[in-house]
Structures are given as C-alpha cells and as structure tokens.
Write the structure tokens for this entry.
Amino acid sequence: MEYFLFSLIVYFVFVSIKSKRTIHMLQQNYYNESNRYVLWVFKNLKKVFINFDILVFLSVLAFLFSFDHAILYASLVGAISCFIYYAYNRREQTKKPLVVTSRVKRLVITIFLIYAAIVFGICYTFSEDKLWFYYLLVSLSIYFNWVIVTVANFLNKPIEKYVYHYYKSKAMKKMKEMNIPVVGITGSYGKTSSKNILWDILNTRLTPFKTPSNFNTPYGLIRSINNYLDKFNDIFIAEMGAFKKGEIKTTCKLMKPKYGILTIIGQAHLESFGSQENIQKGKFELIESLPSDGIGILNADDPLQKNYKLKNDCQIIWIGIEADADYKASDIKLSHKGTNFKVTFKDGHTCDFETRLLGRHNIYNILAGIALGSALGLNDDELKRGVSSIAPIEHRLELKKMGDITIIDDAYNSNPVGSKMALDVLDLMPGTKIVVTPGMIELGEKQYELNNKFGEYIADVADYVILVGEEQTKPILDGLKNKKYDEKKIYVLNNVVDAFPLMNKLKKGETYVLLENDLPDLFNER
C-alpha cells in the first residue's frame, strides 16, 4: 500500500492544479450565488468536460499489469496527464487572477478534507486486486473536481454566513459611530464612472470616500468600511451593483443612503433579472430606500426613469440633455481631446464646463455630480474646478499609447448603450480606426439581436474589425455582413493577446484602436 500512496503524489499535484482553476471560475461566478457557477458549468459543457484531464482515466488499465508494474504505469499516466493539462491551460490568458482571500483559504481546507476522506476510504479498504478501482475513483475525483469544489463551497456556507455577519456588525457599528452620509449610485451602466466623477467634484470642498475598484456588493461594501473608510471622511460614495431584483434593497438596508444617483436603466444582466421591468424596479430600489429628507438624482432623458411611478416622497432632481431638466446640458462640443458644454442650473443661471473625458454619455455622469454637488453647497467655481480635474477612468474610454497606436480602452463591461457611444468616440478620431471586441454578454434572449446591431454600427465606423471568440462573436459577424462590410477586413481570433501583433500589421499612419469589452476568464473560448 505504501507504493500505491506514493503514486498518488502526482494525482495530488493534479488535483491542486485543477482545484486552483475551478476555484478561480467559482470566484468569478460569485461563489455560486444564485447558482451562477452551476449554470455556467452547464452552459460550458464542452469546456468543462472535454479537456486533457480525461487522459487520467487511462490509469484504470492498471489491471493489465502486475501490482508493481501497475503502480509504475498509473504513476506515469498521472504525471503525463497532469503535465499536458497544466501546459495546455497555462497558454490561456488570465485577465483577472484568482484572489486568495480568507474565504478561498477556508475553501481550500474543506476541499483538502474531502480528498483526504477519499484517500482514507481507499486505505481502509485497500486490497491489491482492487487497484484498478482505486485509480478509477481517484480519476473520477479529478475529472469531476468541479463537483467536489461546489460541495465544499456548500459545506462552507454556515461558516461564511457567520463570517459575513461578524464583519457586517463591525461595519455597521463603525458607520453608526461616524454618522457619515452615504451617496448610493446604481444603474445598468456607468456606476463606476459616476462614482469616480462625483468623487473628483466633491473633493474640491469635502473629503469624500469612494468604494475602491468594483466593491459594489454587500461583501465589498463591508470590506470597504472596515478596511478603508477613514475617520476624516465626511461623505461616503457607495457603488451598488445587482444581478437580480431585491439585491439593491438589501444593500440599502446595510448602507442606509441619504442620497441616490440612478445612471441609466438598460439591459445589462437581463438574463439574471429576467425582464426589463425587473431591472427597472430593481434599480429604483435605491431611490425608494432614501429617507424623506434625502435627494435622488434621476435622468430625464431615460424613459424608464421618467415614466416610473416613484413610491417615495424624497426630493428628486432631474438631469438631462434632450428633455427639460433641473440641470440641463447644452452647447455640447465633442472632440478627440475632450468635451465642452454649458449647464443651465435649477435657478436659471448658466455655467460653462470642460472635461478631458470623451463621449456624450459621460456628460450625464458629470451632470449628476454637478447636481448633487450643488445641492450639497458647492459653488460654481468649485464645480468647474472639480469637472476640469476629473481623471480619465480606467478601462472606460481611457486613451493609452502603445507605440504609434492610440488605444481607446473601453474594456470594462460593455453594454448596448455604452458600445454605441464608444463607436461614436472612435468616429471622432482621425486616421485608421480598428475595433477589437468579443461582443456583449448576459443579455438573455436579446443577446443575438443586440450584438447583431452592434456589428452594424461597427460597419459604419471601423476600417478593420478584430473579433475575439468565434462562437460568441457570430452575431457581430452577421451584423457586419448585413451592411456588406468587406470580409477581407474582418479577423476572427480566439485570444485577445493575438490581437496586438495583428494591430501592428494593420496600422496605417495615425491609428486608433477601440478595445470594446474584455470578457472575464470564464467566457474564454478555446
């Protein structure tokens, strides 16, 4: 039995490599919240089940050999299978690495205990004539690693619930002691941009705190409060994300916002919300959670906001460009260097603003910041200074130089509204225009239709198109063909990394490349 256990070392290495990848996918699916990970597995059966780890089942043929030779044979099969699986997966680009949090560490311990139980069971019943069965059991435990990781995640739920409530209590105590007003920001698109813009504007007079990165879930907000909120901060800007109806309401019970900004209600996460009506109601949970002395900032140009019957008596401030609004932008001048515009305030006076940010949609986010800043007492000079100081936002129409190519990085979470506006920005640019995109996701039954329209929009702007992912970009390709786009100028790749050398081959003179969306690793095609 000692030799058998020694042969399992290579299988332990295999389990470690595969478990890391499985946990990575689990983490990107929010630890299977609302069964997101299980649904992902069944939507990606080919990716999950047809892989080189299937080679490990060759170890079952150990029954063809004598005991000593069977051990050697199984060890070689395990080592070769492990090496091929590792080498193949190593070639895949990791866009968002696994974050080794305390939760991940607890999960690893539970996974280890499950595998240890399997080995203990084998040792307890060990018999040389059952060697093939033991290798079959080990092979199955590797091949169905995603099941074991899912079970471990389920077993850890009571622990994670206790940990969550401990840190939640700690965060709520800190917020109560500080008595700091909270601005909640939600919407289908533009949450992070609006958060950063508001921070820059309020920072001219106040000491605002904004949630870092994409910490827009209750877990992320609790972590932000406990680890980053400072005693000198006098206002808290909290980005609030959601995948289904009721989640914003839960977040508001935690944060108790006094002010709320609703960006745009669109079709992001339509698949998980179930309907456009659920998205609308889900986003308005923020405004309907505000106190009677609170202030909600709404977009008058968004029909899903304008036509909603609000169940709240808080003050509402409307912003807009087309419709009549309390804060209305006009005389808009867009260029490849930035944006100039005039704002007519609620009291009738006007003020000119300029920003380095690109795109018409950013004017709405700036208007929301101006409206709330004005309500909080900032004067025109402070507002103008704040708007002019707004820094380009990472991965949201951010200009970057790559040699003699200018990258328009709009890689974060593309959507039907934002992708069209990103193309409008690209259209402003001089020289050669290239679009690199894997398309848009999580749009439910409208995914084909909206990506097809996206392809038609691209055809009107781009000189060259690089599509990433043959299967998921087929609707875009069909849209390009609908507009009779030159197919010789369309390139289809399965890895975004391969797009960069291709850009250099396609560039002609001054070249601008729009990187529209960069799907997380769980959407990679191979």
User: Anything to note?
Assistant: The longest strand covers residues 327-335.
